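User: I'm putting together notes for a lab meeting next week and I want to include a structural view of one of the chains we've been expressing. I don't have a solved structure, so I'd like a prediction I can at least talk through. The sequence is below, exactly as it appears in our construct file.
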Amino acid sequence: MSAAGTWKLAMQTPIGERKVTLSLGVSGAALTGTMSAEDGNAVDIYDGKIAGNAASWKANIKNPMPLTLEFAGDIDGDRISGTVNAAVGSWPFAGSKGA
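Assistant: Thanks for the context. Below is the predicted structure for the 99-residue chain, given as structure tokens.
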């Protein structure tokens, strides 16, 4: 299953659950795309990488505060799960493709 496509993710952050839509493109070992929050704000992802089932990328968000989020997860079919790291800590995320 390709990482390319639209993913619905939920992050269990210190301030509660946050949901985002992740649109990914794949070119060789590189991931590109955008991440959109429920409030409509979208940011480009960068430093995206895919190796086997392992995927990682970064996103600079502005809300609820300016942060760089670093995602690292594993893709299993149409599911993804992993960890988000930021300056304020780390927390789990999970989601599915096309849901």
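A couple of points you could mention at the meeting. The chain has a mean pLDDT of 93. The chain has one domain: 5-97.

User: Perfect, that's what I needed.
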